[in-house]
C-alpha cells in the first residue's frame, strides 16, 4: 500500500510540474506578444522581474496543490468517520439483540432441550460475531489513524519536494531569460555594427 501511495504521489508531483511548466510557457507567450517597451531592460532588472513573478506563481501553484491534497484528506476522513459510526451502530444493535436473546433464553429454559440448544447456538454465534466485529472495528480505527498519519507525513514531504522542484524551475527560467536577453543584445549589436558599416 505504501509503494502505491508513493508512486501516486510521484505521479502527482510530475503532473503538477508539467502543468506548471505549461502555465509558465503560456505566460511567457503572453509576455512576448505585449507591445515593446521604449527602453530595454537590463539583465539585473530582468532577473528581478523574473524572480518576483516566478516566486508569486510558484507560491500560488504550490498552495493550490497543497489545498487539493488537504481537501482529499478531509474528504477521506469524513468517509472513515461515517464508516466508523456505522460499525458502532451495528455493534450496538447486535448487543441489544444479544441482550434480548439472553432474556428469551431464560424464559424458554423449560421448553425443550432442542429449543434451548438452538437458542444457545444462535446466542453463541451472535456473541462471536460481536467479538469479531469489535476486533474489526478496532483494526479499522487503527488503520484509519495510521493512514491519517501517513497522509499528513506525505503532505509535509510533498511540500518539501515542491519547494525543491520550484527552486529548480525558477533557476531554469532565470537562466533561459538571461540567455534570451544576451542573444537579443548580440543581435542588436550586430545590427548596429552592420548599420555603421553601411553608413561609412
From TrEMBL:
Family annotation (Pfam families): Cor1
Biased composition annotated in UniProt, kind: Basic and acidic residues: 24-34
InterPro entries cross-referenced by the UniProt entry: XLR/SYCP3/FAM9_dom
XLR/SYCP3/FAM9 domain boundaries: 58-172
Annotated region described as Disordered, given as residue ranges: 24-46
Highest taxon above the source species: Eukaryota
Protein's UniProt name: XLR/SYCP3/FAM9 domain-containing protein
Organism, as annotated: Pieris macdunnoughi
Amino acid at each position: 500500500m505504501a509503494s502505491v501511495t508513493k508512486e501516486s504521489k510521484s505521479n502527482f508531483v510530475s503532473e503538477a510540474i508539467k502543468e506548471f511548466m505549461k502555465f509558465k510557457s503560456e505566460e511567457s507567450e503572453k509576455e512576448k506578444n505585449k507591445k515593446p517597451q521604449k527602453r530595454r531592460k537590463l539583465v539585473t532588472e530582468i532577473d528581478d522581474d523574473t524572480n518576483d513573478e516566478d516566486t508569486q506563481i510558484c507560491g500560488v501553484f504550490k498552495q493550490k496543490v497543497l489545498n487539493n491534497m488537504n481537501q482529499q484528506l478531509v474528504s477521506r476522513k469524513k468517509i472513515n468517520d461515517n464508516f466508523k459510526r456505522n460499525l458502532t451502530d451495528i455493534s450496538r444493535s447486535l448487543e441489544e439483540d444479544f441482550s434480548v436473546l439472553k432474556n428469551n433464553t431464560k424464559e424458554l429454559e423449560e421448553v425443550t432441550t432442542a429449543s434451548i440448544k438452538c437458542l444457545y447456538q444462535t446466542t453463541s454465534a451472535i456473541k462471536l460475531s460481536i467479538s469479531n466485529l469489535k476486533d474489526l472495528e478496532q483494526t479499522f480505527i487503527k488503520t484509519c489513524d495510521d493512514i491519517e498519519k501517513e497522509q499528513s507525513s506525505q503532505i509535509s514531504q510533498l511540500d518539501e519536494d515542491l519547494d525543491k522542484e520550484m527552486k529548480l524551475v525558477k533557476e531554469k527560467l532565470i537562466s533561459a531569460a538571461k540567455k534570451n536577453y544576451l542573444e537579443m543584445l548580440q543581435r542588436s549589436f550586430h545590427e548596429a555594427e552592420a548599420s555603421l558599416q553601411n553608413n561609412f
